[in-house]
Amino acid sequence: MNLQLKVKYLVKDTPKLAYAKTGDAAFDLYAAKDVTIAPAERVQVGTGVALEIPDGYVGLIWDKSGLSHKFGLKTLGGVVDSGYRGEIMIGVINLSNEPYTFEKGHKISQIVIQKYEHCDIVEVDELSESERGASGFGSTGK
After folding, report:
1. What gap in Å lies between CA 14 and CA 48, rounded to an integer?
2. Mean pLDDT of the chain
3. For residue 130, is it within any domain?
């Protein structure tokens, strides 16, 4: 049996959430009203939906590849915890030189519902050695 995700539609005529194709990991989220984003501007775009994500799972918000590659739109933030019951809001920044308008019902982003592990956080004085150690950005070459 598949995991059940409860959806509450907060805005009339919001497109119904569904996976577009068999095997898709994510489903689309849609703009609940028209929103224009000027170049270099950040906005919050309402989706008109609230979710009841089951305990032990998280909603991870991701870009729509067409919007990011063709129009320079990037989603910000992106974690929806299982205890949150409010409207899903999508932070978006316009990295292009042109304004972009999301019309009501247009795709904004996509969300993956994913199981996660809950960790016991333990403070220590030392961490174990590893091959990489503290080598960071660019440490593995081009």
Report:
1. 6
2. 95
3. no
Q: How far does Cα 130 stand from its chain's mean position?
A: 32
3 state SS for 37-84: ECCCCEEEEEEEEEEECCCCEEEEEEECHHHHHHHCEEEECCEECCCC
28 contact partners, CB below 8 Å, separation of at least 6: 15, 17, 20, 64, 107, 108, 109, 110
Asked if residue 128 is part of any domain, the answer here is no
Q: pLDDT by residue (tens digit) across 35-77?
A: 999 999 999 999 999 999 999 999 999 999 999 999 999 999 8
Structure tokens at 128: 């174990």
The CATH code of the domain that includes 74 is 2.70.40.10
**Does the pTM of the predicted model rise above 0.85?**
yes
